[in-house]
Write a structure and sequence with these properties.
Elements: E1 10-13, E2 16-19, H1 23-47, H2 59-72, H3 90-94, H4 97-103, H5 106-135, H6 138-149, H7 152-160, H8 164-178, H9 182-196, H10 203-210, H11 216-234, H12 236-241, H13 247-250, H14 264-274, H15 281-306, H16 311-328, H17 337-348, H18 354-371, H19 389-414, H20 417-424, H21 426-436
Antiparallel strand pairs: 1-2
Helix pairs in contact: 1-5, 1-6, 1-7, 4-5, 5-6, 5-7, 5-8, 5-17, 6-17, 7-18, 8-9, 9-10, 9-11, 14-15, 14-19, 15-16, 15-21, 16-17, 16-19, 17-18, 18-19
């Protein structure tokens, strides 16, 4: 007779109670995922330069280096020179500077920066896997981690931008939240806001999830206690010295940008052109922003009225809000794929066609940038004249890419029939809520 296993499938790590897997297996799978993720980054560095039309874009890192040099020479960020991002942006751009100074070599800054971003990305990978263990069994959690570790388009931007840092803070906030470390979750999300604004969209959903067993008032006070010191330390002093630093936060509204051609807004404008309908792109942009407001309010009201009672539902709400903000905005950066990849990896890992959709998203992301950029479009214009084969090619490409995002979101929504029913009954639920509280 076989002996019954006495292996305990639960343990604690950094205060998080992990269940469904023993510690030895957890460590083994973490090592596997780390190796795979590092191999993905190495493949990007080795093969991107030799793929036709591709290149390793170091423009942003060069800008970060200039900020770091200015600071090293005694200039004060936000006061002596402008920076377009909130203050915690300085953390990843200043850390590589001592290594560059010791080596007296600019490329040392680049390599150190890429190593640092890879480290943050690996930490994000660990968050994805640990979150997966909370919402799935160990096998599906590993699948989610594997999807993220092999997300090659996201890996490209991890190595060339700084989004790996704020998305790490966002995923850390979600990890703490679903493992009932509420204050740590709020603090991570708030620090994410002071890094690149967008992690703040998770805070309302985290608050509503935490309030399921307490009250909104208690959670609101808790989040304010976490936010107030951050505001006093990271915002108030700089703002008092130079009020123009507010632009680092207002830039997220896109008020100073034109309409980027890789947006859903401009794609709709081009599709209308293709069928002979001539609408101003500014009018379409206004409609898209109106749609953004309606959809985000719908999601927030639905979450408020029906409550958020599961960790997976938190991920769905945050992903849908991110997709809405990205698709309805008049400006767009291909690096936004870094924001959504952890959520797609987690939520598509449980679907029959999810793995295919995940890699299709990555393929489209890599084609959008770097392969098609400059060859078929720049930020504000297509490189081919209207009506030419090249013009139709890029319009259809962006149309297909947007549809893939939407189709993936629909598959995720269809996997949660409870959420679908809540959305269908929202008007009556809102009516019942007001009757109850008036």
């Amino acid at each position: 007779m076989a002996k019954k296993s006495n292996v305990v499938k639960s343990f604690s790590i950094l205060g998080l109670d992990i269940s469904g897997i023993n510690k030895e297996e957890f460590v083994r799978r973490i090592i596997y995922l780390t190796i795979i993720a590092l191999c993905t980054k190495l493949a990007i560095l080795l093969f991107s330069p030799i793929v036709p039309g591709s290149f390793i874009d170091l423009f942003d890192i060069g800008l970060y280096l200039q900020y770091a040099v200015n600071t090293a020479q005694g200039s004060i960020p936000y006061i002596d020179f402008n920076i377009e991002y909130p203050p915690l942006f300085l953390i990843p751009i200043l850390i590589p500077m001592p290594f560059a100074l010791m080596a007296n070599n600019a490329m040392t800054y680049v390599y150190t920066y890429q190593v640092l971003m890879t480290l943050f990305d690996i930490l994000t990978l660990y968050c994805v896997y640990i979150i997966g263990l909370k919402i799935y069994d160990a096998k599906k959690a590993f699948t989610a981690g594997l999807l993220y570790a092999t997300a090659f388009s996201a890996a490209y931007f991890v190595l060339t931008k700084y989004d790996a840092f704020p998305i790490f803070l966002l995923m850390l906030a979600i990890t703490f939240t679903i493992y009932n470390k509420q204050a740590y979750g709020y603090l991570s999300g708030i620090l994410g806001f002071f890094t690149k604004i967008f992690p703040a969209i998770a805070l309302p959903y985290m608050l509503l999830y935490n309030a399921r067993n307490t009250s909104l008032k208690e959670q609101f006070l808790k989040i304010m206690m976490c936010a107030l010191p951050c505001v006093i330390i990271l915002f108030v002093p700089i703002f008092l010295i130079n009020p123009h630093t507010l632009s680092a936060y207002l830039s997220a509204t896109g008020a100073s940008f034109g309409i980027y051609v890789n947006t859903a807004t401009y794609t709709l404008y081009s599709l209308f052109q293709a069928v002979g309908i001539h609408l101003p792109n500014t009018a379409i942009s206004l409609i898209m922003y109106a749609a953004m407001i309606v959809i985000v309010l719908f999601l927030l009201i639905n979450a408020f009225v029906h409550k958020i009672d599961s960790p997976k539902r938190v991920l769905i709400y945050i992903l849908f809000t991110l997709i809405t903000l990205i698709l309805c905005s008049k400006f767009h950066s291909p690096q936004y794929i870094v924001w959504i990849t952890p959520f797609f990896a987690l939520l598509l890992a449980d679907l029959i066609h999810g793995i295919y959709l995940h890699y299709i998203i990555q393929i489209f992301g890599f084609l959008e940038f770097p392969i098609l950029f400059n060859n078929y479009y720049t930020n504000l214009e297509y490189t081919c004249a209207v009506g030419t084969p090249g013009w139709y090619t890029i319009v259809l490409f962006f149309t297909a890419e947007i549809l893939i995002w939407i189709i993936s979101a629909v598959f995720i929504l269809k996997s949660d029939t409870g959420l679908i029913n809540e959305m269908k009954t929202l008007p009556s639920a809102v009516n019942a809520y007001f009757r109850k509280h008036t």
